[in-house]
Structures are given as structure tokens and as C-alpha cells.
Amino acid sequence: MQLDISKDSLHVYEALASETRIQILNLLSQSSMNIKELAHALHMSSAIITRHINQLENAKLIRTEKIPGKSGIQKISKLVVDKIEITFPTTIYPNFKMRSLELPVGHYTDYNVTPTCGLASSKDFIGHVDEPKYFMDARRMDAQIIWFTQGYLEYKVPNPLQKGEQMELLEINFEIASEFPYSNNVWPSDITFYLNGHTLGTWTCPGNFSDIRGKYTPSWWEDANSQYGLFKTIRISKHGTHFDGEILSALALDDLDITAELLTFRIAVEKDAKNIGGTTIFGKGFGNHQKDMEFKFYYSEKC
């Protein structure tokens, strides 16, 4: 589950702000339990436990299902989230000016992919899944989700800086997951990123997520399919390349041809990767973030 700092995530924070509910989550992490079992374990009344269970359900941290038992139908609660990431507001760099652009995920200029693979717009699949030839379909420009097991997508990014403006930091934001037929919340994949032919570094994505529906994933998309990704940020400065604030490589701006009119950004799952778990890239209309890939150019003006 991925959260942000907004009122949309407040119900989850409120659900976690209770010692009793934390105890319930810990118990359910060991095994599914009914109200009576939880009440006995925590030495509380069933009525109190029921109120806590309702709040955890509303936060989509647990799910309660009806199953047949010896004494009739039982309501069994189970934990459905094993990890929560919190995205804080983007860091502001007041000393620099900034220009940004969003690039739709379907606007790649080169590709080489292997199944499982496919593309879809917010309305339907583009061509047939698991047939790489449809990555050249003219409708690929409308793609809002793209997935493949091994290979790469490559994008040409126009450099918006003008004469007399010096790049100080390049930030690349995107929503991404690994790739598994339907989905698998624990499915690591080594995803490598390149800029202008230089290797920025490799990050291991932990899974392909469907524990809850993506905020913007269209209703026709099946629940069992990948629902959302993790929102990630690559920052390339004069000091190196960072991924969500952690060092990814020593590659710095001075190592790149950053003054070129077009920058080339590649997302790849290499054939010699330890974890070939594929990748899924989310744009507007899918996942938890209503945006395409975003490129932010922080710059200073030369005197």
C-alpha cells in the first residue's frame, strides 16, 4: 500500500493510531482470526474488538470474509497489507529555477520486449497481450499502462533549457512495479535505468501489487491484475545519482551530455539480471498517481 501526505490517506493513519489496533494487526499477521478469538487474546469484549475491526477494514488494512464452520457461518478477519510506503511532498530547491514536462508512458521511441507484455489505455487493451509486435501499434501513444518481462523501453526527452541556463539537478518521477502474470505482491525485479547511454544504476522492485485497487485504475481492469506501482524519484546532481534519497551510483551531471537538445531515458530489465521480474509502468489513468513520467530540470542562470 502506498500513501501520501494528504487527507486521502488520513483514514489509514487514524486506523494505525491505536495500540489495540496495532495488536490486532500483529495477531492477524500470524493467522486469520474471528472476533471471539481476537477478544480472548486481547482480554476485551467482542463489541470493542468489532469497532476496531471495522476501522481497520475501512482503512483496507484487513478484510473480513464469511466462511462455513462447525457452528455455522463465521466471520474471519485476515491481514491484506504487508508493506506501507509514505511519499512526502517533493523537496523544494529555492536556489534554483525549474522547468518540468510530463511524458506519456506510450511515447517511447524504441523498445525490445519479451512476454509477458502488453499495453492498455484507460478504455481497453491495445492489440493482443503477450505479442510484442503491438508495441508498434499506432495506438501505443494512448497507452497508460505498459508491462514486459525482459527488455527495455526508451524515451526521447526534449531539453527545455535555453542558452545561458545551466543544469543543476535533473529529477525523474514515475510510478513503477515489477511484472507477473496477473499479479504477485512479492515478486522482486532488478530494473536498470539509463540516461544518454550511461547506466544510472539498478533498483530491485519488491513486487507487482494488487492488494487493493489503484486509485485511478479503470473499472474494466480486473482486480487480479496489477493495480498500482510505487512512486519513485531519480535525482541526478553534480554529486551523483540518488534513488528516493539513497545513492544509486556515482554518475553525476558532468558525466552526461546534459546539454544535448534531446535526452535519452531507458527503463530496462536486463537478460543477465539476478531477478528478471519484469516491469510495469503506470501513467495517467492507472495506479495511484494521476500523472505520466515527469522530468524536472532545475537550473541556474549564468552571469
UniProtKB/TrEMBL annotation:
GO molecular function, one term: DNA binding
Keywords, comma-separated and alphabetical: DNA-binding, Transcription, Transcription regulation
DNA-binding listed as a keyword: yes
Pfam name, any one: HTH_5
Domain HTH arsR-type positions: 1-95
SMART domains for the chain: HTH_ARSR (SM00418)
Superkingdom of the organism of origin: Bacteria
Cited SUPFAM superfamilies: Winged helix' DNA-binding domain
UniProt key word Transcription regulation: yes
Protein name: ArsR family transcriptional regulator
